[in-house]
């Protein structure tokens, strides 16, 4: 699903350059549910934005679902964002409309896009386990439920790849678990490939595979560094502590 080789992203602003990705490699199989972990500023969001076609890499190779993203024209990018990927962010719920119902919030973007190939809004709510709350106003739903509405919207165009940037950053542990279980369910029932960016060790434990990113590079490139080994150990301890809770 994802072949990413020697990916470089340099942000340029006036006389300042930030190297956010410095030759990153990442390969993700179709149907995988995987997590990317790493400290703040390590390049996680930058990577997701490249994968989702929200921003362009400076150099390297990037193929997603057989498409070469570096060769994309603007029109190709628009099509790709609509048809191949779905996005979930930490504060997705902010983009929802509080005085509309859960169902109306899912219907609205579908109507606005006027697309033929799509799921029905109610089916989407069903898929995220919220059909019983369809007629509740958004502001009557909990944070975790609101996040599930956002996930339903992300699935509207039947994406092949779901990208989630800190999807549980603003909900408690129980809700975080439920959201992860939902990703797992969607992964199993639709064969959806899911890439989650997180620094939550609980989340990282529930996925098929974890890749660490540090200073814009993935773990295979930095595995031999002592500090990285320590990071893994800390993650492991975090998981154990969470299990005891
Ligand atoms: P993470 O998501 O892991 O916290 P980011 O991908 O957001 O990391 O950021 C990686 C680096 O790139 C950071 O040094 C950040 O300050 C920088 N950066 C991110 N976005 C931009 C931008 N639009 N312009 C300039 N620098 C950016
Ligand atoms: Mg980020």
TrEMBL record:
Superkingdom of this protein's organism: Bacteria
ABC transporter domain mapped to chain residues: 2-240
Keywords from UniProt, A to Z, are:
ATP-binding, Nucleotide-binding, Transport
- Keyword ATP-binding annotated: yes
Q: GO cellular component terms?
A: membrane protein complex
Gene Ontology MF terms:
ATP binding; ATP hydrolysis activity; transmembrane transporter activity
- Family, per entry: Belongs to the ABC transporter superfamily.
Give the protein's recorded name. ATP-binding cassette domain-containing protein
Q: What is the organism field in this record? A: Paenibacillus silvestris
Identify the segment of the full-length protein shown. 1 to 245 of 294
